[in-house]
Amino acid sequence: MSNFPTLNEQMDVIRRGVSEIIPEDELAKKIEKSIKTKKPLHIKLGCDPSRPDLHLGHSVVLRKLRQFQDLGHTAILIVGDFTGMIGDPSGRSKTRPSLSLEETRKNGQSYFEQAGKILSNNNITMVYNSDWLGKMNFSEVISLAGKYTVSQMLEREDFHQRFNNEEPISLHEFLYPLAQAMDSVSIESDVELGGTDQKFNLLVGRTIQREYGKEPQVILTMPILPGTDGVEKMSKSLDNYIGINESPKEMYGKTLSIPDKLIYDYFLLATNISAKELQSIQADLANSSINPRDIKRRLAREIVALYHSPEAGIAAEEEFDRIFIKKDIPEDIEELQYGAAGSSVNILQLLSETKLCSSKTEARRMVEQGAVSINNAKIDDFKSEIILDGEKIIKVGKRKFLKILPC
To answer: Could you tell me which CATH class the domain 248-325 is placed in?
Structure first.
C-alpha cells in the first residue's frame, strides 16, 4: 500500500479502546516515517499455543491488529511453538506445564485458522519462533541472559509475589520474556500488541531490542475483557466465554447473559460500531427510560453478524424469542436414535452418552441445579430411570436441546 491515511486518522483508529501506548510520541514518529517512506510498520502479536480455542477475549487484541492491517501495516503473527515449551508464567502462581513442539505447532495452526475470521488475508505473515530461538547456541543464550538482571525480573508482580511467598520460580521462567523479546529482535517489530497482563513482557522486548542495536518497539496494550459472569477474565475453563466458532444461537444467547455493566465495554472492544454510535449507546445506557435489555439485543446481533452474517443475527434473535419468550422448541433441533424401545436408562448415562453433558459428573450437577427437563417435565433426581417409550425432547440448561427416538 503506497497511500496511508494521515497521522491523525491513523491515531484516531489506533487509540480506540486502548489501555496504554508506550510511548505514544514514538508511535506517532513511526507512523510519520511510514507515511513518508511508504513502508508499512511491522505489527507483532504473539499467539499463545496452549489455548487454541479462541473467544471474544482473544478477539480484542486481534481486532486491534486488524485495524492496523486496514491502515496498511503488516501484521506478523508469531506462533510461540518454542516459547510454548517454556510456558508463559504471566499471572501464574506456579510453574506452567510445558508443551511439546508438536502440540504447539498443532495449536498454533488452529489459532491461525480461527484468527482468520477476524484478520485480513492481506498484509499478514505467520512465523514460528522456533525458526530463530531453536538455532541459538548456549553461548548466545548466556549472552542474552546477561542483558537483564534478576532484580529487573523480580519487578514483575507475579514473580515478586512468588518470591516473597517462597514459592518456586524455575530459572527457565525467567527466560520466557527474554525469548519473547528475541522475537521482536528477529522480526524487527515496530509495534507489539498484547493484553494488559503482558505489559512486562512487551517492555522487556524494548530493552532487548536496544541491546541488539534495533529501534525499540512501541507497546500497545488492550484491556482484558471480562467473561459473561462479569467478574472473571473470559476463559473456557471458567465457562464464561463466547467462542468465535460458536453457532449464532449460542453467541446470541450468551451475549444476552452478560451483566448490564459490561454492555458498553463489549460494544467498544468486540464490535465495529462507530465512535458516534458508541456515544449514542452511552447516552442510552444512562437513560433510565430505555431498557438495557434492548441495547443488549442489538449488541448480540452485532456480534453474531461479525462472525456469521447480519441475517444470522436476526435469525438468532427470532429463535431466542421463540424459545425463551414464547417457550417454543427450536426449529432445527437435532434428532438422535438412542436405545431400544421400551428399555430404560439412568438420566446421567443418557445425558453423557448423548453428549448433552461432557461427563456424568457434569450431568449430575445439571440435574441437581434443576437445569434438565424431558418433554417439559423437570428431572430433579439424578437416580431417575428414563423409559425409552417414544419421542423425547431433552433440554439441558437454557440452550441445549436434543430429540431422541428409540431404535
So the answer is: mainly alpha
